[in-house]
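## Example pair
The file below holds two records. Each record gives the amino-acid sequence first, followed by its structure token line.
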Amino acid sequence: MNCWIFIFAALAALASADDSEKKIVCYFGSWSVYRPPGGKFDISDIPPQLCTHLIYSFVGINTQGNVIVLDAWNDLPDNWGKDGFGRFNKLREQSPKTKTLIAIGGWNEGSVKYSDVVANPTIRARFVKNVVEFCQKHNFDGFDVDWEYPNQRGGKPADVQNYISLLKELRTEFDKHGLILSAAVAAAEPSASLSYDIPAMSKYLHFINVMTYDFHGAWEKTTGLNAPLYPRKDESGNDLKLNVDASVRYWLKSGCPPEKLILGVPFYGRAFTLANNNQNGLVAPTRGPGAAGPYTREAGMLGYNEICESLKQGGWTIVRHAEHRVPYAFKGDQWIGYDDITSLNEKMDYINSLNLGGAMMWSIETDDFNGNCGEKYPLLKTLNAKLRGGVPIEPSKPTEAPKETNPPKPTAQPTQPPATTPPNGICKKAGFVRDEKDCNVFYQCVDLNGIYKVERFTCPSGLVFDTNTNNCNYKNLVAGCN
């Protein structure tokens, strides 16, 4: 009897040690396999030893409560497919301690279908059953709920408690099969307060991936940083809440246990086209998103690999903001706010200082995985160095240039094509609308007291926006886009 007590005590201690280990949660955007050479990223490029959890993004949902594979050729082995799910889960052979999860949702999936499914107890129960079967069939260790967002984007107030019912039912079934349940959530109080009962959801989720980025971007009319750590003294109102520290403290104050809070960091930057090249600081006027990069090919967003390669070419002025603790760079009319090795080192120190559960990054395929600017995976290795005792990465010189108080005027304009802006009058009502000239492009129209805020989005390569489902779909299945 004493022997068995000792064994159980030892197992409990091991479980406790595993729970206390800092997590490094690596999201993988599966559409990156379609990018051009230099940015094309395959599952075989993933270093699983550098991630405690790997999350494959994304699958979808339908109104009957079924889990839907969004890219069967890429995800499955059927019909000579690439078997993304299978190859992703085989990464555990290289790193047996790494756990693999499948994520459902994402921005493009929207909220309406999720709202409908969780509102119906019968359909919700069917969905829970389908999720368990899906994870078992494809050999995932767990499931990540990335509903963006309950009670927003076409959702309804009842979503807040229906979301809790969903998590409770998922966790009940997951515990029977040893599956992991996590979620990706809105970070800032103005959004999170609309969507979440934080104490309740914290009971059922193993960990919570707080998306502490996208605080500012080209949907605004002035420059702003993607993921500032702290506010500026001259900010006021809601702007004081649009930073990492304010978001984390809101979640903690609202009842999220620190060990379950996984701090999100961006492996990409938000880019703008300046309205006036001589006004190039924070809150400078802009005329639209920054030019698309050669790999991600999305105006207003650049992967860190694209940023570091561009900075390496020279001609940029780099400013490290003393209050926000993150850098931005400008060249001609192009302006980028991003994170680098130095800012991530400070954010990892922040995680340790508050004893948070670890770091999550979006997403692994936009790190400098080819090592074109120095060592391979500099950002991911920075997370490991601070949270798991890895080897520190030295910042490369191009991204650590000193602040220039009187920068020289550029001698030439950027060679990239000018950024595009949403067509005038594109918004007739709140919701999504496809670009009239490019089926790959769509916009979200948000009604702000009679004035539309317009956000521009691009479907992954090979897909177009389907106005019937408000999702990206294969071109041959969408009328008017053949």
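Second record, same layout:
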Amino acid sequence: MKYRTLGKTGLDVSVIGIGTWQFGGEWGIQFTQDEVDAILDKGQELGINLIDTAECYGDHLSESFIGNYIGRRKREDWVIATKFGHHFHERFTRTDVFNAADVLKQLDASLKALNTDYVDLYQFHSGPDQVFDNDDLWTMLDKQVQAGKVRHLGTSIGSNDNLHQTEQSTKVNSQVIQVVYNRLDRKPEERVFPSCEKQNLGVLARVPLASGYLSGKYKPGAVFDNTDVRHRHDPENTRRKLEEVEEIRRNEVPQGVDMAQWALAWCLKNPIVSAVIPGCKNPAQVESNAAAAQLL
């Protein structure tokens, strides 16, 4: 495993992290604690120390799986990033809630679920600019940093071209930007990444495998059934993506190199990217993801 410093936070994170949206059930898979334990144990064995989650991955469900695991391991071995701003109701149904009082309740609920006294990174989660520009919110969050409940603040931007929230990071003491970035979606290179570099912000690349399209598993013409989250994607977009992936496979991926590993390493070859946070459904996928670090 290789490690990079997460911008001005000073945290050293594994370049491959573990994204945990899937633990909330929206991948169409219901995880057990034993399955989560096996995934996180494999990650630790391979040198991964970064876990990214959110309060709305299930109703604190993903956090609870992680907290149960952490309670039986060493907390200091992990950099735990979570997020705020939504109440989960049911699969794919959330309500935005970004007012300061409610976010404080969300933080306390996240700490309880995660079985910890502090989170390493607490991220504003894909909210609009009008709720981001709320001094009361950031003042409250700064107080939580001073109290030791949060080590660092970050922003997970909903649009991968949200320059406003990126540019305001230093002002609100947000030290990390999380953004969709992958070989099919390079938009952050234009404006977001230069701003991150200028401010020395850490960058977490989410959806680095483009929702699995860059995994190498799917050929043009693939059809996803209604148990698969990709069933919700626009069919024409899916067709175009699969055709582009086939071209990338032919023209860019070296012979004999696993495409998913290549795609993760592709993100990390941009020096502004601190870490990628792919999801995974079993220890074998964790192992495959971790192997991407060898391609750097």
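Notes on the second record: The chain has one domain: 3-211+258-295. The radius of gyration is 18 Å.
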